[in-house]
Design a protein that fits this description.
The structure holds two protein chains of two kinds. Chain A is α+β, with helices and mostly antiparallel strands. Helix content of chain A is 30%, strand content 25%. Chain A is built from five helices and nine strands, in the order βββααβαβαββββα. A seven-stranded mixed beta sheet of chain A has the order 2-1-5-4-3-8-9. The radius of gyration of chain A is 14 Å and the shape is globular. The two termini of chain A are 23 Å apart. In chain B, strands 1-3-2-4 form a four-stranded mixed beta sheet. By secondary structure, chain B is α+β, with helices and mostly antiparallel strands. Chain B is built from seven helices and four strands. Helix content of chain B is 46%, strand content 12%. The radius of gyration of chain B is 15 Å and the shape is globular. In chain B, α1 (35-44) packs across α3 (81-90), α2 crosses α5 and α2 crosses α6 (121-136). In chain B, α1 (35-44) links the parallel β2 and β3 (50-55). The chains are: A alpha+beta, B alpha+beta. Chain A binds chain B through residues 45-47, 49-50, 52-54, 57, 60-61, 83-85, 138-143, 145-146, 149, and chain B through 2-8, 58-61, 63, 131, 135-141.
Chain lengths: 152, 154
C-alpha cells in the first residue's frame, strides 16, 4: 500500500458517464480516493451509502471524494442510480486494476481492490491512507474526519 | 459550521433517548427503511433488554427513511414513539404520507400536531444528532448494536 508522504500516482480513468477524469485535474483540492472491491456487493453498498450521507461535511472541508473499482462505467452508472448516490465512480477497467495496483490496493488473487482510502493533498502528495484488514470490513466515515482533523 | 464527526465513543444512554423494556441496556442504531432492521426488530425488542433507539437513516439507500424517522419522532412527542416504530417495521410496504396519517390515526395521535411536528426543524435536528453520534462511533451498517457497559468501559 502506498504511504503518506509519497507522490500520488496520476491516472486518467473514465467515470460513470464515460468522461475522462484525471487526478492531476483536481490538483488544488484535497481528493479522497475510495478504492472498493465491486459494484453491487452488499458490503460496498453500505460503505458508499454511508459516505454519501456525510458527503456535504466532507466537501465542506475542501475534499472531493471519488470511488474507484474495476467495474465498467456502465455498471458504475447503474450502481450510482441503485444507491441514490452522486459520488463520482471511476472505472479501473482496462488494463484491469492498473490504478489500484499503482496504489498498492489491488488483491491479485481475487482480481479486485481491497477496501482502501487514500487522502491526496492539494499538491498531489499522499497525506493519509487506510487499508481494511479484509474487504469485508468497512472503514467508518469517522476515520475520514479523524484524518482531516489531524492533517490540517 | 460543519459538525464535528471525528471518532467518539457511543454516547451513554441519557434522558433524551427513546427507551423501552427491562433489563440491561442495548443501544440500537437503526434505519426505519432498512429491511435488515425490520427483520431484527422483533428479536431486539423482545423484552430481554432495555432498547435504547438511535436514529440512523441512510437516505441515499432508503429515500423514505428521513420521513419515517421524522414520523416516529413526531409520534414520540405525543408519547407513542415505539408504537410508531413497531408499526413501521411490521408493515414496510405502506410508507407514503397517507399511510403515515393512517398509522398516526390508528395510534390515536392528534393528526394536525403530528403533521406540523414531523415537518419541523426540531425533529430533523433530533434525528441528525443520533445519526452523527453513530457516524462518530463508526457505524457502517444497520442495525448496529452496542452494549453500553462493554463499549464505554475504559
Amino acid at each position: 500500500m502506498i504511504a503518506a508522504g509519497e507522490p500520488a500516482p496520476d491516472f486518467t480513468l473514465r467515470n460513470q458517464d464515460g468522461e475522462k477524469v484525471s487526478l492531476s485535474d483536481l490538483q488544488g483540492h484535497k481528493v479522497l480516493l475510495v478504492f472498493y472491491p465491486l459494484d453491487f456487493s452488499p458490503v460496498c453498498s453500505d460503505q458508499l451509502s454511508i459516505y454519501q450521507e456525510v458527503k456535504p461535511e466532507i466537501e465542506a472541508r475542501g475534499v472531493r471524494m471519488i470511488g474507484i473499482s474495476v467495474d465498467s462505467g456502465f455498471a458504475h452508472k447503474a450502481f450510482q442510480e441503485a444507491l441514490g448516490i452522486d459520488t463520482p465512480l471511476l472505472a479501473d477497467f482496462e488494463p484491469k486494476g492498473e490504478v489500484a495496483r499503482a496504489y498498492g490496493a489491488y488483491i491479485e488473487k481475487v482480481g479486485h481492490a481491497n477496501r482502501s482510502l487514500v487522502l491526496v493533498d492539494e499538491e498531489g502528495v499522499v497525506e493519509w491512507v487506510h487499508e481494511s484488514p479484509t474487504p469485508l470490513e468497512i472503514p467508518g466515515a469517522n476515520l475520514i474526519f479523524d484524518a482531516l482533523a489531524g492533517g490540517s | 459550521m460543519a459538525p464535528e464527526l471525528t471518532s467518539a465513543a457511543v454516547p451513554p444512554p441519557g434522558p433524551e433517548d427513546h427507551r423501552r423494556g427491562k433489563g440491561p441496556e442495548l443501544i440500537v442504531y437503526a434505519d426505519l427503511g432498512c429491511p435488515h432492521c425490520a427483520m431484527a426488530w422483533a428479536e431486539i425488542s423482545s423484552g430481554e433488554a432495555t432498547v435504547v433507539f438511535r436514529h440512523f437513516p441512510v437516505a441515499s439507500k432508503h429515500p423514505r427513511s428521513p420521513a419515517l424517522h421524522a414520523a416516529a419522532e413526531a409520534a414520540g412527542l405525543q408519547g407513542r414513539f415505539f408504537e410508531m416504530v413497531d408499526s413501521l417495521y411490521e408493515d414496510r410496504g405502506r410508507v407514503d404520507d397517507p399511510h403515515l396519517w393512517q398509522r398516526a390515526e390508528a395510534l390515536g395521535l392528534d393528526l394536525e400536531r403530528f403533521e406540523s411536528d414531523r415537518r419541523g426543524d426540531a425533529v430533523v435536528a433530533r434525528v441528525r444528532r443520533d445519526f452523527e453520534s453513530g457516524i462518530r462511533a463508526g457505524v457502517t451498517g444497520t442495525p448496529a448494536l452496542f452494549n453500553p457497559g462493554a463499549t464505554l468501559s475504559p
